[in-house]
Amino acid sequence: xxVSMELVKQLRAMTGAGMMDVKNTxxxxxxxxxxxxxxxxxxxIAKADKKxxxxxxxxxxxxxxxxxxxxxxxxxxxxxxxxxxxxxxxxELAKNIAIHVAMANxxxxxxxxxxxxxxxxxxxxxRDEALAEGKxxxxxxxxxxxxxxxxFAEQCLLEQPYVKDDKKTVEELLKESIATIGxxxxxxxxxxxxxxx
Length: 197
Fold this sequence. Notes:
By secondary structure, this protein is an alpha+beta fold. The protein folds into 3 domains: 5-51, Ubiquitin-associated (UBA) domain (Helicase, Ruva Protein, domain 3, Orthogonal Bundle); 58-109 and 156-194, Tetrahydropterin Synthase, Chain A; 115-154, Orthogonal Bundle (GTP Cyclohydrolase I, Chain A, domain 1), CATH 1.10.286. The protein has helices at 5-15, 19-28, 33-51, 82-85, 88-104, 116-132, 137-155, 170-181, and strands at 58-65, 71-79, 161-162, 165-169, 186-194. The radius of gyration is 21 Å and the shape is elongated.
């Protein structure tokens, strides 16, 4: 089936996917834009991990100021091309991540970015706590690692449950977006300012 350029433009605007991917998927789904978008998303999730090593040197700065004016956030969201950086869905993602940072107040982007001294202090506190509970020495370390996972999920942006859908983490949200948009997406830096903190 021949697909009109209007449908191709519509699906590209919705997903940010490449021209040939959009055209082929529309042909495959008989011109059904919603089915094509779902199929692109499904295929893209499998490709998302492969895209993680590609350079993301374009992007958009998303921002959020809380209604009371006491919390503000800016987030640098990177992608591979200027075309995607100008995409409405990509810019909305940057703004939604800024909202998340405002509400969840992460200390760092990932485990690697957390202050090692902070992690060690938490590990020691959790170990002392487990020993004080009378847990056997041989299982304390496993318990500590399990509890540290909860600590990382509170402190690290990528591991936090996403505030708009707590069934997925921010990292899973990014992977879904990579699948939908078709490019590597990375959070660069973020800054949160709060009055009185």
